[in-house]
From TrEMBL:
Gene3D superfamilies: D-Amino Acid Oxidase, subunit A, domain 2, FAD/NAD(P)-binding domain. PANTHER family: L-2-HYDROXYGLUTARATE DEHYDROGENASE, MITOCHONDRIAL. Pathway: Carbohydrate metabolism; tricarboxylic acid cycle; oxaloacetate from (S)-malate (quinone route): step 1/1. This is Probable malate:quinone oxidoreductase. It comes from Microbacterium limosum. Keywords: FAD, Flavoprotein, Oxidoreductase, Tricarboxylic acid cycle. GO terms for biological process: tricarboxylic acid cycle.
C-alpha cells in the first residue's frame, strides 16, 4: 500500500526549506517529505557560490527602480522588495531567538550596500534615485556622494587611481545592508525540519506527478544510488526545483502551466581571496547593466562571507547552457517545448535581439577581457589576483501575454493548480532573499481555508505579517532595529 503524507517538497533549496519551516510551525502534526535529486541540499541556486547572496532589499539594485521615459523614478517596486526582505529578516530573527537557527554570523553578516555609477547621465539618475528614497522609512540612512574622498572611505578599491577629471561619478551607501549565505541557512532549516520529524531524502529524483481521484498526488521517484523506483501519495506538493520546476509541472498536467517556458542563463564570477584586497572592500557595490543585458547580469563587486571566510566576487558574466540546472540535462531547453508555449517562446526570441547579442558578446570574452571589465570598478585589478568561478543556472520565465503573445519575465512567479493541491516556483531574482514573502503568498493561494486560522501564529513569527512597514516610520524603525539586534547586525 502506498504511503500518504500531507506535504511533499521537491527540491532541496531555500524555497522548500522556507515553506517546510512555515508549515511545520503552523501544522506540527503534518507529515512532510522532501526529495532532492543531488547528494545534499543547497547544491544548486541556494549554494553560496551560485548566487550573489546579497540579501536583496533594493538598497543598491538599480533595476528595481528604472528611470521612466519622462525622466522620473518611481520607488514603489524598490519599497515592495524591501518590505519582502524585512519579512525574511523577521522570520530568521524569530528562529534565532528560539535556537532553531545557529549563531547569526553563520549565515548573515552586516555588509553595506552601495551603488556606484559613472558618466553624467547615470550620475543624474542616481541623484534622482537618492532623492526619491532618502525620506522613505525603509531606506533611512541612505547616503549620497560625488566626493572621491568620501567614496574612498566607503570602498577604497573603487577609488584607487581613479581620476574625476576622466568622468563624473557618484555613489550611494546604506550601512545597514547584509550578506547572506543561503547555503548555510538552507542547511540549518532542513536540519531543524529533520528534528521536527520531516524526512529529507537526497539522491531521489521525482519522475512523475499524477493527480488521484481524491485530489491528492501520486509522486513517483527513483533512488539514484540503488536505482530503485518508489511512490508516495501527497495531499499537497510544492515544486521548488529551480528550472526543473517547469518540467515537473508540465508532467503534472495542470492547465495553469500551459504557455510557460524558461530561458536558461548561466554565469561566472571573478573571485579573489587575497587578504590585502579583501581588507580594502567591505561592501556590495552595484552599477548599471550593459545595454541589452538582463537585470540579473547587473555588474557588482561583492564582499562574500562563506563559512566565516571573506572573499570578493565580481560579475556575473553570462554563460549559456541548454541545461535548466548546473546538474541538468543538455536536452532541457528542447524537451520543455509544448504546443501551448512554442509561440510565446518564439516571440520572446524575436523581441529580444539585444539579449542574444549580449550573450554572444559575453561568451566571447576571455579571462583577460573579464578582468578588464573588473577594472571599470577596480582600476588597479591584476589578472593574477582573480580566478573564474562558475555560478548557478538561472531559468528566466517566458510566458503568454495577451498583447505581445509572449514576454520574457525577470522576476519570480508561483504557478498553482486551481484547487491549490500543487504549486511550483519559476524564475530568479530577487529569489532567495524574498523566499519568506513568496512562500507566505503561496500559503494564501493554496490554503485559503486555513490562512485565517494560521494568521496569529504567523504574526508571532513575522510581526509585520498582513501589513506594510514603510507607511509607518516608527513601525519600520522598530522592525529593523529589532531584527538587527536579534541577528547581531548593525543598523
Amino acid at each position: 500500500m502506498t504511503e500518504t503524507v500531507d506535504v511533499v517538497l521537491i527540491g532541496g533549496g531555500i524555497m522548500s526549506a522556507t515553506l517546510g519551516t512555515l508549515i511545520s510551525e503552523l501544522q506540527p502534526d503534518w507529515k512532510i517529505t522532501v526529495f532532492e535529486r543531488l547528494d545534499d541540499v543547497a547544491m544548486e541556486s541556494s549554494n553560496a557560490w551560485n548566487n550573489a547572496g546579497t540579501g536583496h532589499a533594493a538598497l543598491c539594485e538599480l533595476n528595481y527602480m528604472p528611470e521612466a521615459p519622462d525622466g522620473t523614478v518611481d520607488p514603489a517596486k524598490a519599497i515592495a522588495i524591501n518590505e519582502q526582505f524585512q519579512q525574511s529578516r523577521q522570520l530568521w530573527a524569530s528562529l534565532v531567538e528560539r535556537g532553531v537557527l545557529d549563531a547569526p554570523s553563520t549565515f548573515i553578516n552586516a555588509t553595506p550596500h552601495m551603488t556606484f555609477v559613472r558618466g553624467e547621465k547615470d550620475v543624474s539618475y542616481l541623484r534622482k534615485r537618492y532623492e526619491a528614497l532618502k525620506d522613505e522609512p525603509l531606506f533611512a540612512g541612505i547616503e549620497y556622494s560625488e566626493d572621491s574622498r568620501v567614496i574612498h572611505q566607503w570602498a577604497p578599491l573603487l577609488m584607487k587611481k581613479r581620476r574625476k577629471s576622466d568622468e563624473p561619478f557618484a555613489a550611494t551607501r546604506v550601512p545597514a545592508g547584509t550578506d547572506v549565505d543561503f547555503g548555510a541557512l538552507t542547511h540549518q532549516l532542513f536540519d531543524n525540519l529533520r528534528e521536527r520529524g520531516a524526512r529529507v531524502f537526497t539522491n531521489r529524483e521525482v519522475k512523475k506527478l499524477k493527480r488521484q481521484a481524491d485530489g491528492s498526488w501520486l509522486v513517483t521517484f527513483r533512488d539514484l544510488i540503488g536505482h530503485t523506483p518508489g511512490r508516495i501519495n501527497a495531499r499537497f506538493v510544492f515544486v521548488g526545483a529551480g528550472g526543473w520546476a517547469l518540467k515537473l509541472l508540465q508532467r503534472s498536467g495542470i492547465p495553469e502551466i500551459s504557455g510557460y517556458g524558461v530561458f536558461p542563463i548561466g554565469g561566472q564570477w571573478l573571485k579573489t581571496s587575497n587578504p590585502a584586497l579583501v581588507a580594502q572592500h567591505r561592501a556590495k557595490v552595484y552599477s548599471q547593466a550593459s545595454v541589452g543585458a538582463p537585470p540579473m547580469s547587473v555588474p557588482h563587486l561583492d564582499t562574500r562571507v562563506v563559512n566565516g571566510e571573506a572573499s570578493l566576487l565580481f560579475g556575473p558574466f553570462a554563460t549559456f547552457s541548454p541545461k535548466f540546472l548546473k546538474n541538468g540535462s543538455m536536452l532541457d531547453i528542447v524537451t520543455q517545448v509544448r504546443p501551448g508555449n512554442i509561440l510565446p517562446m518564439l516571440k520572446v526570441a524575436v523581441d529580444n535581439p539585444s539579449l542574444i547579442r549580449y550573450l554572444v558578446g559575453e561568451l566571447l570574452k576571455s579571462h583577460k577581457d573579464k578582468v578588464e571589465s573588473l577594472r571599470e570598478f577596480v582600476p588597479t585589478a591584476r589578472d593574477e589576483d582573480w580566478e573564474l568561478l562558475d555560478a548557478g543556472q538561472r531559468a528566466q520565465v517566458m510566458k503568454k501575454d495577451p498583447e505581445k503573445v509572449g514576454v520574457l519575465q525577470f522576476g519570480t512567479e508561483v504557478v498553482a493548480a486551481e484547487d491549490g493541491s500543487i504549486a511550483g516556483l519559476l524564475g530568479a531574482s530577487p529569489g532567495a532573499s524574498t523566499a519568506v514573502s513568496i512562500m507566505l503568498g503561496l500559503l494564501q493561494t493554496c490554503f485559503p481555508d486555513r490562512i485565517e486560522e494560521w494568521a496569529p501564529r504567523l504574526r508571532e513569527l513575522i510581526p509585520s505579517y498582513g501589513r506594510t512597514l514603510n507607511p509607518d516610520e516608527a513601525a519600520a524603525r522598530t522592525a529593523i532595529e529589532e531584527t538587527a539586534r536579534a541577528l547581531a547586525i548593525s543598523r
